[in-house]
Amino acid sequence: MTDSDAGFDPTSLRPSLFVDGQWQGSGDGGTRDIVDPSDGSTVAVVDEATPDDALRAVAAARSAFDDGPWRSVTVGERSDLLNRIADLLQRDKAKLAHIETLDTGKTFGESEIDIDDVTSVFRFYADLAVVQADRLIDVDRPEILSRVVHEPIGVCVMIAPWNYPLLQISWKIAPALAAGCTMVLKPSEVTPLSTIAFTKLVEEAGVPEGVVNLLQGSGAVLGDALTRNRDVDFISFTGGLATGRHILAAAAENVTKVAVELGGKNPHIVFADAVADEQSFADSVDNVLTGVFLHSGQVCSAGTRLIIEESVADRFVAAVAERAKTIVMGPGMDPASETGPLVSQAQREKIEGFVAGGIHEGATLVVGGTKPDDPALEKGSYFLPTIFDHCNRSMNIVQEETFGPILTVERFDTEAEALLLGNDTNYGLAAGVRTSDAARGERMVRKLRHGTVWLNDFGVYTAAAEWGGFKQSGNGRELGPSGMSEYQEAKHIWHNTSPTAAGWFGTR
User: Fold this and answer.
1) Which tens digits make up the pLDDT trace of 495-508?
2) Cis peptide before 375 (omega within 30 of 0)
3) pTM of this prediction?
4) Signed CA dihedral, 243, 237, 30, 228: sign only
5) Residue 261 annotated among the catalytic residues of the structure
6) Stretch (H or E) spanning 294
7) Residues 205-248: pLDDT tens digits?
């Protein structure tokens, strides 16, 4: 597919800042080149915001929330808006998927699935917006009408990561619009293209001026203007642990509410009984492989830690390694490609550092560990699927989120040991368990300290179920009803329909 086949014109993305209903350039004329990680070419140039641009965007969102028509829009009208956005997403699915692939390097098939997932998120919150009701409270006094209502929290800053640019920011935008909030969006400066294209769809759908504002730029430049701003009521951030800590500290100055999803180091636990016959063995190998190497491992919930029962470990690891060798790498727009490059050369250098560290720490390199030697891939940010065996929790590659195609292998003998290893992490985003023993499976999923646990599956999710992590994977939840609650304040209204004197103090 060519750019013209998908209807994508890179020049259509400028001006690329959207503030108070107007597309505009940067206040200082600054721009950034956006690079296709499959070959290092520049695919687009976007405007890059200044701190003053960020202040104007927050002010526009504040005015739209406090004084604009958005507050008088009914839940039914908000629901209709979300459904219109969903319709436009499907209308432009091919173009958006193409843009996402150029931006991130993932395969076009993956990007198409992402657009369908984004659509499902908007459909879910369109439905939820109209069914959420006030809660009546019986206080056993007939003259009192007591109820709890949910009101929009206000102005929201939404900061999204580079691995799933449109999907991750949709988890924020859809519930915020359903709740009646206004917002400032900041995609990763590395992968902003699909969010720019999406914001044009939001404009087309008829969102009022100032409700949705869009900035591009680095967090180092824009961070303080967005996170230390008294006009901001809520910050939603998805990204790395260090940045999350910085945002939490900055927001504390104004006691701004913050929800953060900070990644994970996710165990995929395989018991011997789950691979007792050839079909279950092959299926488990396939799911472990997919769980870690999809999108070249650049997934916060990737199953990067294989925790395997000792009695089947040698055979199982060998089978996963053989499958890993056959993964077809290439540009995302090539239908033959099964996985694409890392998002940037910088990310590849980071992965190379983890591999060198793993070897130094004594882990056994089974497969991969280098960039491919195919000359056709030389200009891209590719890195081979990599497996380290005989790992333990003292190793940095087991402790740290590598965010790349690295699988570490740890071994166990007992259920108790498997559980100990599965919980022995500073993170707690997701985990998987494979066993044919239903009772054992239930014991494991209840005791694992992770926000999502898959039993005999891995990596799937639904917009209707909450997503988020324990421990240093963050706080708050996205998706599901709780995902909308993050964008609301609960207010208790006590209405005395027959007021009388309190009579507490005597009269003179």
Assistant:
1) 999 999 988 998 65
2) no
3) 0.95
4) negative
5) yes
6) none
7) 999 999 999 999 999 999 999 999 999 999 999 999 999 999 99
